[in-house]
């Protein structure tokens, strides 16, 4: 099997949230391009990003010179300047970034960001930068809580070949030594503004329940067994 392509991210806006996000992405193996217009903030991230650029992200001419060609996901982490957040998102969309996440601070801000091209809206507290970074760099392992030195509770994406099968058929307890304690299932609806809204519910499945491809399994097991399931 060939080596997995390194994920490349751009993070624009280096407040507390943006700095945490850069640190999590960079230390977990992602290639990160960081942008801010304050030199002191650029200095904070230079040790764990691949490239940091001191510039105004609302300057379209300057942004057109940034090496975005390999960027898979851009995160507009600007939270205190709504105008800069909106303009930056629009510029990234025009440049052609495949996936744009933008942080909103109000409902109207969220709506405008969607209208100018944001693919996903994040509206979370600044200390959640670490969690978002973990999800971006390793979407198949959303979260992990140590219950002891050897046992953890983990959120894991469903391996493709396990989808559309029942828990009793998969028999994960016997075959992979893990227990499925719950399932996070997400559905999407479109509101009157055309914004896609995600709705999430937690299920406590029985043996006959069918696993869906987009489910997140909440499992308990030995750390090595969880890692084996993740790598399956």
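^ Assign residues to that structure.
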């Amino acid at each position: 099997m060939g080596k997995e392509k390194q994920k490349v991210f751009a993070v624009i806006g280096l407040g507390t949230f943006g700095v945490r996000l850069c640190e999590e992405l960079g230390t977990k193996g992602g290639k990160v391009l960081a942008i801010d217009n304050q030199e002191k903030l650029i200095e904070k991230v230079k040790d764990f990003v691949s490239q940091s650029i001191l510039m105004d992200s609302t300057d379209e001419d300057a942004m057109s010179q940034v090496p975005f060609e390999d960027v898979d996901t851009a995160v507009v982490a600007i939270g205190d300047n709504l105008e800069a957040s909106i303009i930056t998102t629009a510029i990234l969309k025009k440049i052609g970034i495949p996936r744009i996440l933008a942080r909103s601070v109000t409902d109207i801000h969220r709506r405008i960001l969607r209208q100018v091209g944001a693919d996903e809206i994040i509206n979370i507290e600044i200390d959640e930068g670490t969690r978002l970074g973990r999800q971006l760099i390793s979407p198949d392992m959303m979260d992990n809580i140590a219950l002891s030195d050897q046992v953890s509770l983990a959120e894991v994406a469903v391996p493709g070949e396990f989808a559309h099968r029942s828990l009793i058929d998969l028999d994960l307890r016997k075959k992979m030594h893990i227990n499925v304690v719950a399932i996070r299932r997400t559905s999407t609806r479109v509101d009157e503004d055309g914004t896609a809204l995600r709705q999430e519910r937690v299920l406590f499945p029985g043996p006959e329940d069918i696993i869906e491809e987009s489910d997140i399994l909440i499992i308990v097991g030995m750390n090595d067994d969880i890692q084996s399931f993740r790598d399956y």
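The longest strand covers residues 178-190.
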